[in-house]
Amino acid sequence: MPSTVVVGHLTAANKGARQKIINAVTKVSQYSKQSEPGVLRYAVTIPRDASDETSVYVIEEYANQAALDAHMGCKAVTDLISDFTENGATLFGGATNVYTSETSSAFVRPEITQCSDPFIAYASIDYKEGSRAGALDGWKKVTSETQNNEAHTLGYAILKDKSNDKTVSTVEVYANETFFKEVHARSKAVADNKAKFGEGHRTAFKLTLLKLVAGYFYKEKSGSPNL
Fold first, then answer.
1. Where does this protein have coiled-coil stretches (predicted)?
2. By residue range, what is the domain housing residue 79?
3. What pLDDT digit, counting tens, does each position of 169-199 carry?
4. Are residues 85 and 125 in the same domain?
5. Is 173 a member of any domain?
């Protein structure tokens, strides 16, 4: 059964408010890592673009729906929701966007825990009507080739949006920016996938480069082989 990935994009009122949001969400990530085996990852990230001083992206993965439901009901999360509700006027400068997906193909390497500054690429791609299934097959080949041939690609997840049947998201984690740009992006697997399912199939593409500031992408787990 595929795991569920939830990506939340929070927009703070200002840079100071963003740090308060990060501090609050970090407490939840610490609780999840220690006490929730079904929460496979809980990564707190911010854009590498220095001009964006208000965004926070929280990337979460749950082994199954029961793990997600239990997480949402735990005290750490209910306290967080109460805090954000009570102080929302000063903390937030815009609506929070939440994207829920299921894994289509993915892997993660334990070495990700040893990387002090992983380079994270989060992409959202919309495909033409009826094209997503074929595109996901193409992405599965990229995932397999990447896992077999790129030791410095530390994690790779291709995600099928649950609410939009045209959308695919990716969460990719690299040892550094140079490897992402000079090796992975130029690989034959990526080039072949673009040739087959790129121009002419995609209707929208958005890429956000992220920096990990708290939380985790990997822990010993059961129930899912995914990132």
1. none
2. 4-98+212-216
3. 999 999 999 999 999 999 999 999 999 999 8
4. no
5. yes
d(CA 32, CA 39): 6
Residue 25: both structure tokens together: 């969400």
Distance CA 20, CA 143 (A): 36
**Has residue 195 been placed in a domain?**
yes
Q: How many domains does the chain have?
A: 2
Is 156 within a domain?
yes
Distance of alpha carbon 199 from its chain centroid, rounded? 24
How far apart CA 209 and CA 206 sit, in angstroms, is: 10
Residue 31's domain is classified under what CATH number? 3.30.70.100
Other C-beta atoms closer than 10 Å to the C-beta of 182 total 10
Q: Per residue in 3-19, pLDDT tens?
A: 999 999 999 999 999 99
β-bridge pairing 39-47 and 55-62: antiparallel
> Would strands 39-47 and 4-11 be described as parallel, antiparallel, or unpaired?
unpaired
Residue 215 is encoded by which pair of tokens? 């939380």
